[in-house]
Each structure stands twice: as C-alpha cells, then as structure tokens.
C-alpha cells in the first residue's frame, strides 16, 4: 500500500474543494515525508479537523488548513441531504405580455406557473414568446436574489448573438458571393460533435474557473475541442448587409450599407452538460407541483447553487470566446478587421436591481437585455431582416426585449408541412444562399419580425437593419430538435 495520500482519499473523507485539496495534499506530502504522521493517522486527524476546524486554528501545523476549512464552510449550507417541498401561490403575480394576441396559450400557461412560484418577484413575456421547458422562450423572470432556476436560463446557456461590421461597401457581397460562401464552408464548424480544426490563440482557458468544480474539470476537454464551433437547430453564421439608419458611436460608421457578419450560437456541449447536471439536482432538491416541476431552483447559499453560478458565468465567457473565434477567422479570410462588434446573451441570469430598489435575479430565457443604452441584436429569419437595437431601460419589461421573431410552427410540424421546393423558392425570391439547414428552420416557421418589433417600441430603438444573404447552418444529418434559444 502506498504511503502517499492522494486526492481520491482526501475526497473520500469530505475534502472536495479544489483549494482545500491542494492545501491538504501539500501539507500531507510534507508531514508524511518527514515521518511526522503516517498516512492513516493523518487521515484520521483531517477528519477531526473537518468536524471542528476552530479547535485547530492555533495549531502551528494545521492553522492555515483549519482557516481555509472555516472559510469554505461559511460560504455553503450543508444541503446534500435537504429536500424541500413547495406549493405554488394561489394567485398569479401580474406581469405584462407584449403582443399577447400572437402568443400561444401554452406559453402563457407556462409563464403563469412561473409567476406562481413562491420565489417569484416579477416577470414579463416578450412578443416572440412560445412554449419551452419550464419558463417559456421569451419569458423574463425575476426571483429572489439568491435563487437561480436552471431551466429558466435554458439548456443552451448563454446562447448569444454577435455582429461584426466592416468598413466595406455592401456591393462586395454581390461581387464576391462565391468567395464569401467558400469562407463559410472553410472556417465554420457545426453539429453536436463539431470540432474546430483551425483554432486561433485564445486566453479563455487561462481563467481559474476551469479548475473550480469537478463538473467543469470533466468538461474542459470537450470545451477545448469545440471552441469556435456552432451548434444545431437555429444556430447560424451568415454574411449580410447592415443598413445603418442612424450614425452612433457604437457602430462607428456613417449612415449607409456595409458588409457584416452575424452569428448565433451558445456554449456548446459544455453549457448543455452544466444545464443538465444542475437541473437534475434542482428537481431532486426542490419539489414542486407537476405543472411547475421544471422550474425547480437552486439556492446560491448552497454548494450546488454556487457551482451552477460559476458554471453558468463561465459558459457565458466561453460562448463569447466561441463567437470571437468565428469572427476572427472570417475577418482574416477577407483580409479586414471589423470597425465595430455588437453582442449579447439571451439565455442567462443576472443579478440586477428593479426600479423600486429590490435586488433580484433576472432570468432571460430567449430575451434580449435592453437596459437604458444597452446595445443588442434581434435577428429575423434567414429571409427576414433583423435589427441592431439600443435598450430604453423600460422597467415594466424588466429591461428586456424579444430575442428574435419567435416560432409559429414547432419543429415537428414544420418537418411535416413544409417541402424542400417551397424552401428553395422562398430563398430564391429573397436572393439568399443557404448552406446546410433543414425544413424546421425554414423562414415560414417564424413570426413576422416587423410585427414583433411593433409591440416593443417602448423597449428598444432601432439603429440599423441586418439583411442575411449567405447563411451557414448545421447540415440536416447532424441536427437535433431540442435546442432552445
């Protein structure tokens, strides 16, 4: 039997935090090497220290470890064995619905359930809303500040928009259509198992959070392989024309039409695994009535809550890095640098303060942040222009706006009712080139974005319009039907 004390043995007695493991392991190596303790005696000593760290804070050898154990214990409640059952409110908190006549009853029922949660504080339903898992897509939910709901964030954590604007006249698209199409084929990667074969140097993996939890450490290898790739479903990378209707400091160009690159995707397999893992824990620990079971939450004062919070925020940084990889590769391919980049999440949770001063956790599942002066992108379909917007900070919408046009048809219904000749005709009529994609993302499955925008004039102002021209999506045989965002 080895005399060395390894991490698995330390974890077995309850030392699972990365910093504690490092400190306890370093100390054990020294004490065992100098024969101050045997491995067995030291393990027994560590068990006692974990139970009562205050007794060892004056011990010359173990004071540092004892203080570290105390600091960790003060951060987390011991929640491993706690299962709590909650009932819904008998009343539904009032919330605004934007464009209510074009939102399905299913989506409204889901939002009603969210507004009956005992931890709910405020909410809003965006005009592109449709039903999803837990919170409807297009739902905005503010909860008590220490409460976070994985399914109110969504499976594709930090699903994100990113727009690069080039000081290149839009006529370049007509002159170089074949070349721009080839660049998309050469420099974008899609699909559940898509991997990036030409990654650029990146600092994303220098972040210390990659070592913070066991779940994150297990997923790092997958994240490294998928950096700079895009998902399936409605994720895309596309060249198009940006028509700047108002000169602004953010867009850095005068009014006119310019070449632009727009991408939509999230945190890939990394975020999906974080979401699945902690959603399961939430539903095991927070028991709710059947109609609200997917709205189970985690408390940030628990270890699991803190782990999810770290994972979600890291997924946000990772999703941004994925987009930046894509945009850097394609900018290099055309030999130009963007003069402006606009980006935003729309599946995320933020600690914010409401207009009345209450601190809350704001979940935006398929909703764009629209605080006063905050820039964002609301895309259309592949044949329908989207918009660059600036938020007006409207408090009734919890400083939010739609994240797109929203679906009219479910994926399954679209696949049954739309034909390939119909899709080809619509694309030809609009002068759009599509690489990949499937019938469940045909333009006909989406609402009219202009109508959606008409319901949120109080929420955002439009600064520019983006018209897609060359669209790259996942190939049909690499798709899944489950992504949200």
UniProtKB/TrEMBL annotation:
<dbReference type="InterPro" id="IPR036025">
    <property type="entry name" value="RtcB-like_sf"/>
</dbReference>
<feature type="binding site">
    <location>
        <position position="156"/>
    </location>
    <ligand>
        <name>Mn(2+) 1</name>
    </ligand>
</feature>
<dbReference type="GO" id="GO:0006281">
    <property type="term" value="P:DNA repair"/>
</dbReference>
<keyword id="KW-0436">Ligase</keyword>
<keyword id="KW-0342">GTP-binding</keyword>
<feature type="binding site">
    <location>
        <begin position="403"/>
        <end position="406"/>
    </location>
    <ligand>
        <name>GMP</name>
    </ligand>
</feature>
<keyword id="KW-0692">RNA repair</keyword>
<dbReference type="Pfam" id="PF01139">
    <property type="entry name" value="RtcB"/>
</dbReference>
<dbReference type="GO" id="GO:0170057">
    <property type="term" value="F:RNA ligase (GTP) activity"/>
</dbReference>
<feature type="binding site">
    <location>
        <position position="235"/>
    </location>
    <ligand>
        <name>Mn(2+) 1</name>
    </ligand>
</feature>
<dbReference type="GO" id="GO:0003909">
    <property type="term" value="F:DNA ligase activity"/>
</dbReference>
<keyword id="KW-0547">Nucleotide-binding</keyword>
<dbReference type="GO" id="GO:0005525">
    <property type="term" value="F:GTP binding"/>
</dbReference>
<feature type="binding site">
    <location>
        <begin position="234"/>
        <end position="238"/>
    </location>
    <ligand>
        <name>GMP</name>
    </ligand>
</feature>
<dbReference type="InterPro" id="IPR001233">
    <property type="entry name" value="RtcB"/>
</dbReference>
<feature type="binding site">
    <location>
        <position position="346"/>
    </location>
    <ligand>
        <name>Mn(2+) 2</name>
    </ligand>
</feature>
<keyword id="KW-0479">Metal-binding</keyword>
<dbReference type="InterPro" id="IPR052915">
    <property type="entry name" value="RtcB-like"/>
</dbReference>
<protein>
    <recommendedName>
        <fullName>3'-phosphate/5'-hydroxy nucleic acid ligase</fullName>
        <ecNumber>6.5.1.8</ecNumber>
    </recommendedName>
</protein>
<feature type="active site" description="GMP-histidine intermediate">
    <location>
        <position position="403"/>
    </location>
</feature>
<feature type="binding site">
    <location>
        <begin position="346"/>
        <end position="347"/>
    </location>
    <ligand>
        <name>GMP</name>
    </ligand>
</feature>
<dbReference type="GO" id="GO:0042245">
    <property type="term" value="P:RNA repair"/>
</dbReference>
<dbReference type="GO" id="GO:0006396">
    <property type="term" value="P:RNA processing"/>
</dbReference>
<feature type="binding site">
    <location>
        <position position="264"/>
    </location>
    <ligand>
        <name>Mn(2+) 2</name>
    </ligand>
</feature>
<dbReference type="GO" id="GO:0030145">
    <property type="term" value="F:manganese ion binding"/>
</dbReference>
<feature type="binding site">
    <location>
        <begin position="379"/>
        <end position="382"/>
    </location>
    <ligand>
        <name>GMP</name>
    </ligand>
</feature>
<keyword id="KW-0464">Manganese</keyword>
């Amino acid at each position: 039997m080895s005399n060395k004390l390894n991490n698995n043995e330390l974890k077995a007695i309850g030392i699972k935090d990365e910093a504690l493991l490092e400190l306890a392991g370093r100390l054990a190596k020294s004490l065992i090497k100098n024969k101050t303790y045997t491995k067995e005696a030291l393990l027994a000593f560590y068990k006692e220290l974990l139970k009562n760290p205050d007794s060892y804070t004056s011990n010359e050898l173990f004071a540092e470890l004892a203080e570290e154990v105390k600091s960790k214990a003060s951060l987390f409640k011991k929640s491993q064995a706690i299962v709590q059952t909650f009932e819904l409110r008998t009343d539904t908190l009032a919330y605004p619905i934007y464009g209510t006549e074009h939102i399905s009853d299913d989506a409204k029922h889901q939002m009603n359930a969210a507004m009956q949660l005992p931890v709910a504080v405020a909410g809003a339903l965006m005009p592109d809303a449709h039903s999803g898992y837990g919170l409807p897509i297009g739902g905005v939910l503010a909860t008590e500040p220490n409460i976070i709901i994985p399914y109110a964030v969504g499976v594709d954590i930090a699903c994100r928009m990113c727009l690069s604007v080039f000081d290149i006249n839009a006529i370049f698209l007509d002159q170089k259509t074949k070349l721009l199409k080839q660049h998309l084929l050469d420099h974008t990667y899609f699909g559940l198992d898509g991997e990036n074969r030409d990654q650029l140097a990146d600092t994303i993996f220098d972040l210390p959070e990659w070592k913070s939890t066991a779940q994150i450490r297990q997923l790092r290898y997958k994240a490294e392989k998928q950096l700079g790739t895009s998902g399936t479903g409605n994720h895309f990378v596309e060249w198009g024309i940006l028509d700047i209707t108002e000169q602004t400091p953010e867009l850095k160009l005068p009014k006119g039409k310019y070449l632009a690159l727009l991408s939509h995707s999230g945190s890939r397999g990394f975020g999906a695994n974080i979401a699945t893992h902690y959603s399961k824990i939430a539903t095991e620990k927070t028991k709710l009535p059947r109609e609200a079971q997917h709205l189970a939450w985690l408390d940030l004062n628990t270890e699991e809550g803190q782990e999810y919070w770290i994972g979600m925020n890291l997924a946000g940084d990772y999703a941004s890095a994925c987009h930046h990889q894509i945009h850097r590769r394609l900018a290099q391919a055309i030999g130009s640098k963007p003069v402006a980049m606009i980006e935003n999440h729309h599946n995320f949770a933020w600690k914010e303060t409401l207009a009345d001063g209450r601190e809350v956790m704001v979940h935006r599942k398929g909703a764009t942040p629209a605080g006063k002066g905050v820039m964002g992108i609301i895309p259309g379909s592949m044949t329908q222009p989207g918009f660059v917007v600036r938020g007006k900070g409207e408090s009734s919408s919890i400083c939010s706006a739609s994240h797109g046009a929203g679906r009219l048809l479910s994926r399954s219904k679209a696949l049954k009712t739309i034909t390939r000749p119909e899709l080809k005709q619509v694309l030809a009529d609009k002068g759009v080139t599509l690489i990949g994609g499937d019938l469940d993302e045909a333009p006909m499955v989406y609402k009219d974005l202009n109508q959606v925008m008409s319901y949120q004039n109080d929420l955002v102002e439009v600064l520019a319009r983006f018209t897609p021209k060359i669209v790259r999506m996942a190939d049909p045989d690499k798709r899944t039907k489950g992504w949200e965002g």
